[in-house]
Amino acid sequence: MTKIRRPSRTARVLLPAAVAGALLAGCAQADEAPAAGTAAPTGPTVTVTPPPSTASAPSRTAAGTLLVSDFGSDTVTFVDPARGSTGSVRVGTAPYGLALGKDGRAWVATAEGVAVVDTDTRRRLALVPYRTDSGPVTTGEYRGGGMGIALSPDGRRVYVGVNVPGGDGTLEVIDAASAKVVDVVEVGRRPFDVDVSRDGSAVYATNHDSFDVTVVDADSLDARRVEVAPYGTEGGLGSWLKPHYTAVRPSDGKLLLPFEGERLAVVDPATGRVEIESMTANTHQHGATVTPDGTLLAVGTGPIDPSEDRGPSLTVRSPGGVERVYPLDGPHEDVAVSKDGRTAYVTGGFTRDGYWDGISVVDLGSGEVKRLAAGSRPLDVVVL
Questions:
Q1: Of 124, 160, 189, 291, whose CB count within 10 A is highest?
Q2: 24: number of CA atoms within 13 Å, CB side?
Q3: Are 104 and 120 in contact (CB under 8 A)?
């Protein structure tokens, strides 16, 4: 592994306006972030109905199709990895995270509520309103409402992180059968990502603006916060060096959080201990996922400081720490991997300026990258 570089980077939090305006990949809290309102979004709670039988409604969606959340619109889009978009379904304003159940239903965190989509028949079955007051329904990076989302391994519970502009967020627990919120737990600020342990006993909310991960016991809903700040917390909301997305390592259940293409925080959620390993991409990192064999994929969005940092990329890191870095054209946000592990799909939506309406399809063997038009500012992606 390479030696960790630039210890002085802890001081690089707020940059001069002339530099910051040219950046592709910062995540500092903007002064113009909307304030929380007084009324929560309203709407009926719709009980999820059984999907139509295949006899009356033949499948429209082939295995291997991608589903992306259109953060720049109010839809999710189905994408053929070879041909591009094949249709969209309206789900709610500014959809963010996606969670896919074994029954083929996708749960979509929007600014209005959690949408339930039958990916086979391509219908929205429900829109579950949040119990948390997250202010008026808006769009953009700092909007209130759902962000990260995940399903319990048995598919009975849905966990969604709800952003409350200007304050701590919540983790809302949805009963999948009734499509109703049954519990709410306070977490940190802007829960970018939500993950679940392999056995379903714990839920992890990655809180971008409070430099931590909230570990929630799935049974008792007891919660505790673990600070994850390998560069420190200097700068507070103005810092660029905050956690974004988490991957749960299959071998031991530890949490993997990439930072800046330089440091990988490995968190033991049981003890709260954080160990730091070195990385090599030298770029601001967002999305992360891990394959069953423990290979980590991390999305590099671009430089914080163009004079020192490298451009957008995809890092593929073996369980032993060996990395291969694939350069990408323009900022990207999140990543999913094909079932055979040979192809990565990296969304171009990005939470900040510089996004584009498409996906980079990366052949992990040859390194070939193809750009595919898909969706409207596609943020999250899952393989159906």
A1: 160
A2: 27
A3: yes
Summarize pLDDT for 160-191 with one digit per residue, the tens.
999 999 999 999 999 999 999 999 999 999 99
Contact 379, 77 (CB under 8 A): no
Instruction: Pull the structure tokens for residue 147.
Output: 């962000």
- Nearest one of 301, 292, 309 to 335, comparing CA atoms: 301
Reported as a single tens digit per residue, the pLDDT across 246-281 is 999 999 999 999 999 999 999 999 999 999 999 999
Torsion of CA 9, 11, 16, 18, to 10 degrees: 10
| Calpha distance 316→247 (Å, rounded) | 13
Token pair 């109905």 is found at 49
User: What pTM does this model have?
Assistant: 0.89
For residues 93 and 172, give the distance between their C-alpha atoms in angstroms, rounded to a whole number: 18
DSSP H or E segment with residue 267: strand 263-267
**First-to-final CA distance of the chain:** 35
